[in-house]
Design a protein that fits this description.
Keywords: Glycosidase, Hydrolase. Belongs to the glycosyl hydrolase 31 family. GO terms for molecular function: carbohydrate binding; hydrolase activity, hydrolyzing O-glycosyl compounds. This is Glycoside hydrolase family 31 protein. By secondary structure, this protein is an alpha+beta fold. Among the domains are: 169 residues, glycosyl hydrolase (family 31) (Immunoglobulin-like), CATH 2.60.40; 244 residues, TIM Barrel (Alpha-Beta Barrel), CATH 3.20.20; 104 residues, Golgi alpha-mannosidase II (Immunoglobulin-like), CATH 2.60.40.1180. The chain contains 14 helices and 52 strands. The protein has a nine-stranded antiparallel β-sheet, with no helix packed on it. It has a nine-stranded parallel β-sheet with strand order 32-31-29-25-21-20-19-34-33. Strands 1-2-3-4-18-15-14-11 form an eight-stranded antiparallel β-sheet. Helix 11 runs parallel beside helix 12. The longest helix has 16 residues. It is globular, with a radius of gyration of 27 Å.
């Protein structure tokens, strides 16, 4: 990609040669955008000018920052106060540098080709990056494998896979973003292309990371760190952050493809309540629809949806129905007729409405890549919202299509049938299907994003006093702005329990913090042991849902008998005790982009051992969780980063305090989840309840591991809506025989409790507490009872 000319604007640099163009800009501090167009003279009409481009993901680039451009012999150097880039004129390759001059990344090849064809031309664009020895690559969205994806190959093409396995690729989400980490220094790259793409992460050539897009451009955003958390913050500033969800969506959720009637749904709720199992949400799968027509009810099986929703609400349970995008092609059905008359449907290349088969047959597809169709689709939620439906579950939105009625195409100029008509990859629509003026090959990966956007924006209008809740299977970069994500149709295998951890952590690193997987697997026959271990792990998933497929054995917790029912109940109650901390972490994710489930390396990037610890995670920054994820195991190896860690299985049995920076053998009998509380960590807990009510906690316990510095946070509000809130910051200092604790409060939300409890671990002795109502010191635990609203405490140690 030879460069011969350049034009400098105050906030943009454009460089070009006979065939190619590159534009460089700085949309945010610490972020450079490189828009490579290696075939711009062939693809465009105004070479070297590049046409305007819509980004589905980028929302945080309000303006461009000034660039300092200098030209030297054979190269151009671009600087801002945070980053620098050097570009070679003879090859178009570049070096990405931080403010200290360290080389973070280097391209070794930028190229492209165009082949004219019918019904559409085909493109290939390539970008190759140097992959230094020892550099780790994290993220890439919903992908299989360990935390470090070096030595793997991925395709970004949203795909309906049932069931998926530990080596399945592609899956349902396409997020071409990663964090590179070498020597404790992090950087990142996001490829802002909706086209089908692939990446070889130093697999074919151990020294190269090779990207290939099936589009005519490679629109890249480069991010500096220096820490992984800095890269994630910058990426989520660019692509948007998760809105704070309603509290109830963090409670226990129950689902099954196979609850075939309102009686079944009521029975599930009664089953939970009769066995003292917390529950906040029940899902309705496709059985509630009339002949699989979305936005309808089968009145034989669900004769009075409003009554069902009211009865569930009386038990503190929300009802969330599944919504699929495919519409039954049924003449006279109002939804289909309106979509047809308003030209809202995806079409064949020759212009007729594309007809396929999903659950409805025949089926047509609303073109949810267009703004006007999204608005229409959002309005279809109105009647369900009026019934009291609390949230919506978007499924089959890759979009999935089991079969397409063939389009034979038209004759070419050589009077032959065109080749390549109707090419389909996976269970979806053909490459050449038409979405307005775009082909499916270009917009396939953002179809689900358009569906979620239309629903989210409509729910904000239809029910402005409540926060929207959407759950989606498919998505792309930016999906976090609208929906939670679950990882699709997994299997009831122990390997899938283990791989759920790096999969969810990878999504979190890729800007999607509100995630979960089907517990204890969608397809298969889980054992009671697998159920318990998966629920223990799922206690810490941001979204905790039990879900199974039709044709499998029922897997509600009581189906497995004892001791598994009691252990499942313990896991659910532990979840509800943790809600103040989880809710606070979700608020932090909404504010900073950092997910609740975090890899160890996020906070200790200088420790190379943490990259390999992919079957454990941090819950926030203070709690380290290493669940048992293999059958029959009652011990496991865990890695503790540097510092002091207190064994804390069950959140109520303080154990030994151990030095980190090493591996330890953790005890993990079937009733135990190995956990540790970091020295200086402060975690807020409450009492378990049968369902959520408010996030203004009437009972609150602070659990503090004493250290020279103590930090904790608690965010509270009504649990829904947009009213007053309160953010409490707990800090502490331990030294010279005294522990000082202090809390500061921001916000206008009144307290709903009169007292709080503080449990302090790690003190050798406590002779007195100033500022408390009462205190006890037994077995190494200092328990302090304080008036709510306390500001300072002093403990003599």
């Amino acid at each position: 990609m030879r460069i011969e000319e350049l034009a400098v604007e105050p906030a943009r640099l454009r460089l070009w040669g006979p065939r190619a163009t590159v534009e460089i800009s700085c949309p945010l501090p610490g972020v450079l955008r490189l828009r490579h167009a290696p075939t711009s003279s062939t693809v465009g009409f105004l070479h070297p000018q590049l046409p305007p481009k819509r980004s589905w993901a980028v929302v945080g680039a309000a303006g461009l920052r000034p660039l300092d451009v200098t030209r030297e012999e054979g190269r151009v150097r671009v600087r801002t106060e945070d980053v620098a880039l050097e570009l070679a004129m003879d090859t178009g390759t570049w070096r990405f540098l931080d403010a200290e001059g360290r080389e973070l990344a280097r391209s070794t090849r930028v190229a492209g080709e165009v082949k004219s064809g019918y019904p559409m031309s085909t493109y290939r664009s390539w970008l190759t990056l140097h992959a230094p020895p020892g550099e780790s690559y994290l993220g890439f969205g919903e992908k299989v494998g360990p935390l470090d994806k070096r030595g793997m190959h991925f395709t970004f093409w949203n795909t309906d896979v049932m069931p998926h396995h530990p080596d399945t690729d592609p899956l349902y989400q396409s997020i071409p973003f990663f964090v590179g980490l070498r020597g404790g220094v992090a950087w990142g790259m996001y490829l802002d292309e909706t086209w089908r793409s692939e990446v070889d992460v130093a697999l074919s050539d151990g020294t190269q990371m090779a990207w290939e897009s099936w589009g005519p451009e490679l629109d890249c955003y480069l991010f500096v760190g220096p820490r992984p958390a800095d890269v994630v913050r910058r990426y989520t500033t660019l692509t948007g952050r998760m809105p704070l969800p309603p509290l109830w969506s963090l409670g226990a959720q129950q689902s099954r493809w196979g609850y075939e009637s309102a009686q079944d749904v009521r029975g599930v709720i009664r089953g939970y309540r009769a066995r003292d199992l917390p529950l906040d949400c029940v899902y309705l799968d496709i059985d509630y629809m009339e002949t699989y027509k979305v936005w309808t009810w089968d009145r034989t099986r669900f004769p009075d949806p409003a009554a069902l929703i009211r009865d569930a609400a009386a038990e503190g349970v929300r009802v969330v129905p599944i919504i699929d995008p495919a519409l039954k092609q049924e003449p006279g059905w109002s939804v289909y007729e309106e979509a047809r008359k308003r030209d809202f449907l995806v079409r064949y290349d020759r212009g007729d409405v594309l007809v396929g088969e999903v659950w409805p047959r025949p089926a047509v597809f609303p073109d949810l890549t267009r703004d006007e169709v999204q608005r229409w689709w959002g309005g279809l939620h109105r009647d369900f919202v009026a019934l009291g439906v609390a949230g919506f579950w978007n499924d089959m939105n890759e979009p999935a299509c089991f079969a397409v009625q063939p389009d034979v195409g038209i004759f070419t100029i050589s009077n032959e049938r065109a080749q390549g008509i109707g090419t389909v990859e996976g269970k979806t629509l053909p490459y050449d299907a038409r979405h307005g003026d775009k082909r499916h090959l270009e917009v396939h990966n953002v179809y689900a994003l358009g569906m979620a956007k239309g629903a989210f924006e409509a729910l904000r209008e239809l029910r402005p006093e409540a926060r929207p809740f959407l759950l989606t299977r498919a998505g792309s970069a930016g999906i976090q702005r609208y929906a939670a994500v679950w990882t699709g149709d997994n299997s009831s295998h122990w390997t899938q329990l283990e791989t759920s951890i790096p999969m969810l952590v990878g999504l979190g690193l890729s800007g999607v913090p509100f995630t979960g997987v089907d517990i204890p697997g969608f397809i298969g026959m889980p054992s009671g042991e697998l159920l318990v271990r998966w629920m223990q792990t799922g206690t810490f998933y941001p979204l905790m849902r039990n879900h199974a497929g039709k044709g499998t054995e029922p897997q509600e917790p009581w189906r497995f008998g004892e001791p598994y029912l009691s252990l499942a109940r313990d896991a659910l109650k532990r979840r509800y005790r943790l809600l103040p901390t989880l809710y606070t972490l979700m608020h932090e994710a909404a504010e900073t982009g950092l997910p609740p489930m975090r890899p160890l390396v996020l906070h200790t990037p200088e420790d190379a051992e943490t990259v390999a610890a992919y079957d454990q995670f941090l819950f926030g920054e203070a709690l380290l969780v290493a669940p048992v994820v293999r059958p029959g195991h009652t011990k496991r190896l865990a890695y503790l980063p540097a510092g002091l860690w207190m064994e804390w299985p069950g959140l109520d049995r303080p154990g030994a305090i151990v030095e980190g920076g090493r591996h330890v053998i953790a005890e993990g009998p079937l009733d135990t989840v190995p956990m540790w509380l970091r020295a200086g960590g402060a975690v807020a807990l409450t009492r378990p309840t049968k369902h959520t009510t408010t996030a203004n906690w009437s009972h609150l316990e602070w659990h503090v591991h004493a250290a020279p510095e103590v930090h904790g946070r608690l965010y509270e509000d009504a649990g829904d809506g947009y009213g007053d809130s309160r953010l409490t910051t707990l800090s502490g200092r331990l030294g010279a025989g005294v522990l000082e604790l202090e809390q500061r409060v921001e916000g206008l939300l009144p307290l709903s409790r009169a007292e709080e409890t503080i449990r302090v671990y790690g003190l050798p002795y406590a002779s007195g507490v100033t500022g408390a109502l009462s205190h006890t010191f037994e077995r190494g635990v200092l328990e302090i009872r304080v008036a709510a609203g306390w500001t300072k405490l002093t403990v003599d140690t």
